[in-house]
Amino acid sequence: MKYITVSAPGKLMLLGEHAVVYNHPCLVTAVGQRMRVTAAIDERSNFTLVAKNVGIHGHEKPMSDLGKGNVEKNVRFVEIAVKNFAEKFPFKEGVRIETTSEFSSHLGFGSSSAVTVCMIKALSELFSVKLENKEIFELAYKTVLDIQGKGSGFDIAAAIYGGTLYFVTGGKEIKQLAIKNLPMVVGYSRVKADTVVLINKVAEVSKKYPVVVDSMYRNIEKIVKLGAKALREKDWITFGQLMNMNQGFLESLGVSTWRLSSMIYAARDAEAYGAKLSGAGGGDCMIAFTSDEKKQGVIDAITRAGGEYIDVATNVEGVRIEI
Ligand code: MEV
Predict the structure, then answer these.
(1) Is 41 exposed, middle or buried (0-12, 13-18, 19+ CB in 10 A)?
(2) Which positions are catalytic?
(3) 35 has which bridge partners?
(4) Does the domain at residues 3-179+315-321 carry the CATH identifier 3.30.230.10?
(5) Which of 12, 14, 18, 189 to mutate to test the pocket of ligand 1 (most atoms within 8 A of CB)?
(6) Per-domain residue ranges for the chain?
(7) Which CATH superfamily is 184-310 part of?
(8) pLDDT digit string (tens) for 238-285?
(9) 170 within ligand 1 shell (Cβ under 6 A)
(10) Nearest to residue 153, comparing CAs of 25, 292, 284, 14?
């Protein structure tokens, strides 16, 4: 049987969340925990999904029914990615998919985007359709928008290109920053956040105070641009200060939580260069930049504040074929 295995990394937002939904840039890094998809051709013209991590042991339907009916959340991204690919590049056969993840979907590392990217890449290999990264981006982004209606696509870009990116809404600009390692510590708040709920919450604030929020977004854009320069120059002190400023805006937008802010202040008290929440807020993870010397103290402080330290590599390779 012809089959292929593909993997793609998760992501963490460094600077610019929320503003990036509204035509501003952000900085994102790909993290060293990956989503894996094995796709095989099924002559019976059926779509089958096995995703043991999320309790799916054999979801099966005819290819002609893709996207129809009430599709369970854990199946949705895979199913709609297959549907979108098959609409653009029709094929007669069915596909059998198995997904595994090195990370929990609770962390906010972007498992849905990573699995969507894996799917498009795997199908393009399986059916010998040559796709550039930008074309994979367009199909994967369409899939995510079809399902959740909102999002900048930064997580898809991270899963495809890997490394650390300067990214503008919808992939208008995607620039790889030539850096190696980031001196980053990650703390999980032990609370699962819902991105769409938080985007809607910020939209409410913006509706009430459009002028204030717009000027915040423009300031966040300045922070992101200075942050890109600081990263390139390995100026961690400046980057840390910019993280703290960005956190101030996120607090103002109402997306930090007592737990996240406690972890962030604990990291700063332990002399991190800077700390902020990462992603939509409301839970998920916070990040801190720290010197090697202070790293253990920062980890201990985050843990004492109720967080869970997540040891993860940053700036890792994007989507790739596994042998
Ligand atoms: C969520 O991780 C980051 C947001 O900016 C949403 C997005 O960019 O898609 C809130």
Answers:
(1) middle
(2) 155
(3) 8, 101
(4) yes
(5) 18
(6) 3-179+315-321, 184-310
(7) GHMP kinase, C-terminal domain (3.30.70.890)
(8) 999 999 999 999 999 999 999 999 999 999 999 999 999 999 999 999
(9) no
(10) 25
